[in-house]
């Protein structure tokens, strides 16, 4: 996936909703390149994911690098774990990315609005939101 994001013609299609987070292990110092789906919201980048081990390497106040198929950019990152933030922002991501909503078991009503109970259940099952502010 990371390789496809570097190919000029393919990156526009494959990477339409994908970016790569370049995370450094907080203990090991080992670099990790993690492809993730993202949504742009109020000038920030939102990433919804399960609380995987690599997420622990993202710490508020410690910048990370992110790439959108081009050169790396520096971003301030924050992992949101509280129910209110995760449910609210999961709904934002689900409205923007129907595949993400489907993957995370979030249904919609007739108007296309995400089901709040599904978003809450996603939080209960360990979903977190990573908010990136690209510098």
UniProtKB/TrEMBL annotation:
<dbReference type="InterPro" id="IPR012349">
    <property type="entry name" value="Split_barrel_FMN-bd"/>
</dbReference>
<dbReference type="Pfam" id="PF04075">
    <property type="entry name" value="F420H2_quin_red"/>
</dbReference>
<dbReference type="InterPro" id="IPR004378">
    <property type="entry name" value="F420H2_quin_Rdtase"/>
</dbReference>
<protein>
    <submittedName>
        <fullName>DUF385 domain-containing protein</fullName>
    </submittedName>
</protein>
<dbReference type="GO" id="GO:0016491">
    <property type="term" value="F:oxidoreductase activity"/>
</dbReference>
């Amino acid at each position: 996936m990371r390789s496809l994001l570097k190919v000029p013609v393919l990156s526009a299609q494959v990477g339409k909703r994908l970016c790569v987070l370049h995370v450094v292990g907080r203990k090991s110092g080992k670099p990790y390149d993690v492809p993730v789906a993202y949504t742009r919201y109020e000038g920030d980048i939102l990433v919804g994911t399960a609380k995987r081990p690599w997420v622990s390497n993202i710490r508020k106040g410690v910048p990370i690098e992110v790439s959108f198929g081009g050169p790396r950019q520096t971003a301030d990152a924050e992992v949101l774990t509280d129910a209110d933030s995760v449910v609210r922002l999961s709904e934002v991501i689900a409205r923007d990315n129907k595949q993400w909503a489907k993957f995370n078991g979030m249904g919609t009503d007739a108007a296309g609005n995400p089901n709040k109970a599904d978003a809450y259940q996603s939080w209960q099952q360990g979903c977190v939101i990573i908010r990136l502010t690209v510098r």
